[in-house]
Design a protein that fits this description.
Order of helices and strands: EHEHHHEEHEHEHEH
Structural class: alpha/beta
Helix content: 40-55%
Number of domains: 2
Number of helices: 8
Shape: rod-shaped
Distance between the termini: 128 Å
Strand order of the largest sheet: 5-3-4-6-7
């Protein structure tokens, strides 16, 4: 057995061919393996494999932070109308459709009596529905969008001989300029003079 600590690789191969065992210190064997890994081809292969993930991360990172801030500012949309939320109660008595703002619903007894008077003779059972705003399908919750949605809803509820009782300033705003046959009330009437004037309007509809 031949022991050596400083033999070159060629000498080690020659001794191995002659059948002579050669023992090399562990630290030298580890250093030799390290030098073999550091050959130009091995270094290039390891660099390519290690940097591939870093290159993908850099590509996914996109533009520098300052450019990203500019891009977000360019995409910022102008502020729209303030959002509103409300409910309109819709009660039908035959050909009469009463639209009552939720804020005035506690006084519904008076308004429903007016709707029955507008309907005239004959007993009918009321059909109660409601219009809630905002709606899930609407990206704009402002008053302008609410008016368009509410008028579209009314088109599905109003036929040729329908009479409308609109109760509340909000309902008046949503409907806009109402045609003949509509009665607008902003509140429940208390005085006898106001009630007589309302009755004359109802009589004209008949």
């Amino acid at each position: 057995m031949y022991t050596c600590s400083m033999l070159p690789p060629a000498s080690l191969a020659y001794l191995d061919a002659l059948g002579i065992d050669v023992w090399v210190r562990r630290d030298l064997a580890r250093n030799r393996r390290f030098r073999e890994r550091e050959r130009p081809g091995a270094v290039a292969a390891r660099t390519t494999s290690a940097d591939r993930g870093a290159q993908r991360s850099a590509a996914a990172a996109g533009t520098p932070r300052r450019e990203q801030k500019t891009d977000v500012a360019e995409r910022r949309m102008p502020a729209g109308e303030p959002s509103v939320a409300f409910t309109i109660r819709c009660v039908r008595f035959g050909r009469v459709l009463a639209l009552i703002d939720e804020a005035l619903w506690p006084e519904r007894r008076f308004f429903l009596d007016v709707a029955r008077a507008m309907h005239g003779a004959g007993r009918v059972e009321p059909e109660v529905r409601r219009f809630d705003w905002p709606q899930l399908k609407s990206a704009d919750a402002g008053m302008g969008a609410a008016g368009r949605a509410f008028r579209a809803y009314l088109e599905t509820q109003i036929v040729a001989d329908t009479r409308v009782l609109a109760v509340g300033a909000r309902v008046r705003e949503l409907i806009g300029a109402g045609p003949d046959g509509h009665i607008f009330l902003d509140r429940a009437l208390r005085g006898l003079t106001e009630k007589k004037s309302l009755w004359r309007q109802i009589q004209k509809l008949k």
